[in-house]
Write a structure and sequence with these properties.
The chain is an alpha/beta fold. It has seven helices and eight strands, in the order αββαβαβββαβαβαα.
Length: 224
């Protein structure tokens, strides 16, 4: 049965209720003082994971539909970047099947190479010769995602695209954001379920004036 469409408003509201999204003052690795913080490690309820996975699945289903040739849908391979991406990709595979009738093949990477049993860095579907969509939470500098891309390339796969939960839309070392740099470097789409503009829009409807002013100032100072 088709599920309700993903709603950024619902996702942000749930993220606030579960302390996944917080407002205040947070020092980032870059040294910037951010008026908000997104902690995907707290996406730790069935409801939150289901809403997140439904969003990933909805975006992926649209990609499958846009590349379908006649009645035959293309194979879909999805990959979770360890560690947070592992439950995301498993839940998304289920959401694709239950909500869209798409039987995606999925896998993930280990942080450490396993030297016994099947061994190696990769677990799950064989991605050799396949174009793979990678799922993750937030891309900050893009370093971890580039490592995943290297692993997939070494396994004979290519990256079809990347989907993250949140795009902060912040400048990196230059004028582009980390997401824009990745998209340019890999020549693939990099999509997000929500971004800072969605959060600002939410505060405009439901938040406080002081909070809104801080978010707008931060967006103007560091945004792309």
């Amino acid at each position: 049965m088709q599920s309700a469409s993903f709603s950024s408003h619902t996702f942000i509201n749930l993220a606030l209720d579960n302390q996944v999204l917080k407002f205040g003052e947070f020092v980032l690795k870059s040294g910037r003082i951010s008026p908000y913080f997104f902690n995907a490690g707290l996406l730790a309820t069935g409801e939150m994971l289901s809403v997140l996975a439904s969003g990933y699945a909805e975006l992926l289903a649209k990609q499958v539909q846009s590349t379908a040739n006649g009645d035959e849908a293309p194979e879909l391979f999805i990959f979770g970047a360890a560690y947070k991406g592992i439950p995301f990709v498993a839940a998304t595979a289920q959401a694709l099947w239950l909500n869209h009738g798409i039987n995606a093949k999925w896998g993930y990477n280990r942080k450490e190479v396993k030297d016994h049993g099947e061994g190696g860095h990769l677990v799950g579907a064989d991605v050799s010769g396949k174009a793979v969509w990678v799922l993750d939470d937030v891309i900050t500098a893009g370093t971890a995602m580039r490592e995943v891309v290297e692993l997939l390339t070494a396994a004979g796969a290519t990256v079809a695209g990347i989907i993250v939960a949140l795009d902060r839309k912040e400048k990196g070392l230059k004028e582009l954001s980390a997401i824009q740099e990745l998209a340019e470097q890999l020549q693939v789409p990099v999509k997000a379920l929500v971004d800072i503009d969605d959060i600002i829009g939410y505060i405009e409807r439901c938040g406080e004036a002081t909070q809104l002013a801080k978010m707008r100032h931060y967006r103007e100072q560091y945004g792309v």
